[in-house]
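Cross-posting from the chemistry board since nobody answered there.

I work mostly on the small-molecule side, so proteins are not my area. We synthesized flavin mononucleotide and want a rough idea of how it might sit in this target. Sequence and SMILES are below. Is it possible to get a predicted 3D structure of the two together?
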Amino acid sequence: MTIILHIDSSPRTAHSGSRMLSREFVDAYVGAFPDSVVHYRDLAAQPPTLVDEQWITANFTPSDLRTTAMQSVLGESDVLIDELLAANLVVIGVPMHNFGVGTLLKCYIDQVVRAGRTFKFTPDGPRGLVAGKRLVVITTRGSDYSGPLAALDFQEPYLRTMFTFLGITDVSFISCNGMDSGNRDGALEAARQTITALVADIGNISLTSHPESAVGG
Ligand SMILES: Cc1cc2nc3c(=O)[nH]c(=O)nc-3n(C[C@H](O)[C@H](O)[C@H](O)COP(=O)(O)O)c2cc1C
């Protein structure tokens, strides 16, 4: 059984290309593997809280010394992390905003990157604890970053770096370029072909256990 965490991060709703494609991916996957379970998180409907001074203080206090108030401050982060750790396939719809990711996804990432929960420090440097998962990122961009504009793409490298840091190394990107460049239908069609191929390539993921993911901190 595949436990899918489906995350949408576009502030747009009805006309969002990334939402449409992430939905099509999840529908195609569940159509192929009907025993899948989907947990849906809409970051626009429930925006993650900004990391503030209270959050930082609580996070950098050892877990056994945290007050009830500190635990409460980290409650939302704990829920998001538990949800991430429970999934074995994570699908994220990501519009490009100002050459990177939008505010909502940045806030989400800030909430789930936590020492002792999603990564840990070791003598050899930091080590991700979110192991054994498959990540599919579906990006939509107004312009085309597959050619001369490639150096301006801070979206894919950032996401690849961040999730690799957390231990998710099995990452696939479906980049839907040129959504606002006069050939939206062509861009969507190319993305759809990749979706079909990727669903077949991923196959039915079995739930695996990740004992290190449960490390407290
Ligand atoms: C605030 C904002 C910033 C944007 N910045 C960029 C950008 O830097 N580069 C780009 O190619 N497109 C940019 N776009 C266009 C979107 O990436 C594009 O319309 C995309 O398809 C939006 O996905 P969505 O429909 O899922 O929201 C921006 C759009 C918005 C609203």
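Reply from a structural biologist on the board:
Welcome over. Reading the output above for you: The pocket of flavin mononucleotide is lined by residues 10, 12, 16-19, 95-99, 140-143, 179-180 (CB under 6 Å). The domain at 3-208 is CATH 3.40.50.360 (Rossmann fold). Happy to explain the token format if needed.
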